[in-house]
DNA sequence: TGATTTTACTGAAACGGTTAAGTGATTTGA
DNA sequence: TCAAATCACTTAACCGTTTCAGTAAAATCA
């Protein structure tokens, strides 16, 4: 089954391939008579011609593809969205990209953390990396001259665009909110804290709030595992075993808050009566929880949209580096009670 | 900033481009001396050469890309994973693909339902479509000779590979389980029921079970909206307003079950005391629900893996059509009580 | 009316690889 | 010892587009 190419169309319409190319792309500043144009279009439909995107990309050095790499939250696990934040974010990215007739080239992390594989020589027009930590993987990318936007990454760099939130402030807001409600024994539960990662910032915010309020920091109140429902459940068990010292917890991701709720309930305890919880992100799940989760809301949809927009801007020639810190705020729901 | 191409490497190493190509691909049945090979590799690292994937794809007619199209559950909404089933499935697909060094080209539905856009002339090696209904979109695809696997799609076709489950059986199992527990006033809640879609099958199963048990079917017991948490919550309200006639509900997707639980609780009612619920899919959320959701479990991970495997098989020359019906079973959790 | 611009094309050189078909030199086999 | 096979490469055609630089004819201008 021979594939039909632009040549076949040209032959069918009795014109040169260049002309065909001009009409199917309706290239500006090219004058083609209506008559010829029509003839070519007819030939296209008749032969059912579909342009080869690889050839097109090769010639035009434009792929209409945005690479998106999302880290695994639990290394080695196949489940990419164990933190639902990533699912929500990806949705938004995909939606925005599609509006601009871009597609997404999706990838989990390459085994060697080498983002470059996905961005290989003009295989994508731009690349969005979410939640990377400063690694050599990022440096490699620099060699390409393709636009990169780093989402939720704290890396000082003169070139990469960034979009994120003030995670430290967020952590502080969450914790301060709890303090305001009368709590002083406040757990911090999170995944591993990577240097310069968002979780580290949120942790700093937690400590900031404590310090501001003159509450001593207790290392025992910090629970570090990974960002998953299961870990949070286990953490609840652990807190119970230790005798329920804390009256509140700041869960650095909503999914952790949900795990806490469930873990507690499993043992007959209740949120917020036995433990007040504030989460982070306001993923769509947060309102589904029972009790629904009081959380630090960030506009995930805007985050995705902005990231795509930065790529688009860069592709269309905007040379300057863009940075965006999106606003956050507490949304009060049911998981916190006054002490 | 000039891009380095295979020619530069060839020049640097003092060999022809063909030789370079052979070395970097280590093409079988080509003998290259260790010496030359080493020299070329050195040149590659020195110049930091990265092959252009578009050129490679063009020449080799292989892209190492699998197109994945996921329908919007709520048209016009940007949120692709409002049914978390898709997120779970995508995770699995991505993971499996990556194991075989494939990447994913992700797309929501094109406005015109034309899947062909994503699959354009050899732009992907294969395409996985999940939850399509028989449309002209599918027919268009046929013109390309690229492998297609349809996930959760009931379409009789001599060419497309399919992977799915027996949704009708699943619906029957869920309903029969409820009947077995003593229920006879059983609601069916679902999204719109598309002709030949999975929800229709599950609905048929629901009716099958009713019929087998000699329980009359009540149209009032069926609630059709869309597959979203919000809709299920609204449905709970509606059931309450009608005076709680049903004692149980078969939610044709877990997210609906979760919405029901929450909706009920919001009004002071409880699951399973006031309503028994069985869900469908066993998405990772199902066990996070409170009470955790009794549901018809399907192996979402296997589904994704199988879909990718079918593409891989087809790409590597396996000509015959493959079909897989994965097993399902009830997993008993907390959302159903004996009447 | 002749010079100039515009219109409607065409030719061919990229784009950056892959791969079938050579081609000499060196090994091997009998 | 010599033909045949193997080794280590190279040549060049090809993949299917885009796009720059023409070019002849038609239209416009002074």
Question: Describe it for me?
Answer:
Two copies of one chain form a homodimer. Chain A is built from eleven helices and twelve strands. Chain A has a six-stranded parallel β-sheet with strand order 2-1-3-4-5-11, covered by helices on one side. Chain A has a six-stranded mixed β-sheet with strand order 7-6-8-9-10-12, with helices on both faces. Chain A starts with 5 loop residues before the first helix and ends in an 8-residue tail after the last strand. The first copy, chain A, folds into three domains: 6-51, lambda repressor-like DNA-binding domains (434 Repressor (Amino-terminal Domain), Orthogonal Bundle); 65-165 and 300-327, Response regulator (Rossmann fold); 167-299, Response regulator (Rossmann fold), CATH 3.40.50. The mean pLDDT of chain A is 91. With 339 residues, chain A is α/β, with parallel strands linked by helices. At the A-B interface, helix 4, helix 5, strand 2 and helix 10 of A face helix 4, helix 5, strand 2 and helix 10 of B. The structure holds a DNA duplex (30 and 30 nucleotides).
């Amino acid at each position: 089954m021979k594939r039909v190419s632009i040549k076949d169309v040209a032959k069918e319409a009795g014109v040169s391939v260049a002309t065909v190319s001009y009409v199917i792309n309706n290239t500006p500043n090219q004058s083609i008579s209506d008559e010829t144009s029509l003839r070519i279009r007819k030939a296209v439909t008749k032969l059912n011609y579909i342009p080869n995107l690889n050839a097109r990309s090769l010639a035009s050095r434009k792929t209409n593809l945005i690479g998106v790499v999302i880290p695994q939250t639990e290394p080695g696990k196949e489940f990419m969205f164990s933190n639902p934040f990533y699912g929500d974010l990806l949705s938004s990215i995909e939606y925005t990209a599609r509006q601009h007739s871009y597609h997404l080239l999706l990838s989990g992390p390459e085994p060697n953390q080498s983002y470059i594989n996905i961005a290989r020589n003009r295989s994508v027009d731009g690349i969005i990396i979410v939640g990377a930590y400063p690694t050599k993987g990022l440096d490699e990318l620099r060699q390409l001259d393709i636009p990169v936007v780093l989402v939720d990454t704290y890396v000082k760099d003169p070139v990469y665009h960034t979009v994120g939130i003030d995670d430290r402030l967020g952590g502080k807001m969450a914790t301060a909110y709890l303090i305001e409600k009368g709590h002083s024994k406040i757990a911090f539960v999170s995944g591993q804290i990577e240097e310069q990662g968002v979780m580290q910032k949120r942790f700093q915010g937690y400590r900031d709030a404590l310090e501001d309020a003159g509450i001593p920091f207790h290392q025992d109140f910090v629970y570090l595992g990974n960002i998953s429902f299961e870990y949070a459940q286990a953490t609840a068990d652990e807190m119970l075993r230790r005798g329920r010292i804390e009256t509140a917890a700041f869960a650095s991701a909503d999914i952790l808050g949900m795990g806490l709720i469930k873990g507690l309930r499993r043992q007959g305890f209740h949120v917020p009566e036995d433990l007040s919880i504030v989460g982070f992100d306001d993923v769509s799940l947060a309102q589904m929880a029972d009790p629904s989760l009081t959380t630090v809301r960030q506009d995930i949809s805007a985050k995705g949209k902005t990231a795509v927009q930065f790529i688009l801007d860069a592709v269309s020639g905007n040379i300057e580096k863009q940075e965006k810190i999106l606003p956050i705020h507490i949304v009060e729901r049911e998981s916190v009670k006054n002490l």
